[in-house]
Design brief:
Blueprint (H helix, E strand, L loop, with lengths): L1 H22 L13 E6 L8 E5 L8 E11 L5 E10 L2 E9 L6 E14 L7 E5 L9 E9 L1
């Protein structure tokens, strides 16, 4: 009987220690919140064409904010570099250089940009547009995705 009591005591001790470990993790661990309505936009996959992600204008008296974007692409017949732009910021237009590797279908490193703090549009009820020109002939995969909120 003592052996069974020791086993049961060991199990109870393990459960209580595990419970105290879980109690130290906040319930919102890893959850990001935004001070408005979350939004996202995507160009979808484009083939040798301009990839554009546009946040729709908010309702009257609402600002649109961008918190970040990502550009991804496969290669093209010839290496190419383009100017990806983010427009309608309160400070104007931001430009980023992005390129495609030589060889159709050859993966290109993604460009991921996070804005901390998130950046507002230049006026209420205004779109924010992320646009990447065509990466050229033979480019079979390109996409732009953006995320933010409206308030």
């Amino acid at each position: 009987m003592n052996g069974i009591k020791r086993i049961l005591f060991g199990i109870a001790l393990a459960i209580s220690l595990a419970g105290s470990a879980f109690a130290q993790v906040p319930s919102n661990q890893g959850v990001a919140t935004v001070p408005g309505i979350p939004i996202s936009a995507s160009s979808g996959n484009v083939v040798a064409a301009t990839a554009t992600a546009t946040f729709a204008a908010g309702r009257a008296n609402r600002f649109t904010y961008i918190c970040g974007f990502a550009a991804t692409a496969g290669g093209a017949t010839a290496a190419a570099t383009v100017n990806l732009t983010v427009t309608n910021f309160v400070t104007g237009t931001m430009t980023y250089n992005y390129g495609a590797q030589t060889g159709a279908g050859v993966p290109t490193a993604p460009l991921v940009v996070n804005f901390t703090p998130c950046l507002p549009a230049n006026a209420v009820n205004t779109t924010i547009v992320v646009s990447m020109p065509s990466l050229g002939t033979g480019n079979t995969n390109a996409a732009v995705n953006a995320w933010g909120y409206q308030r």
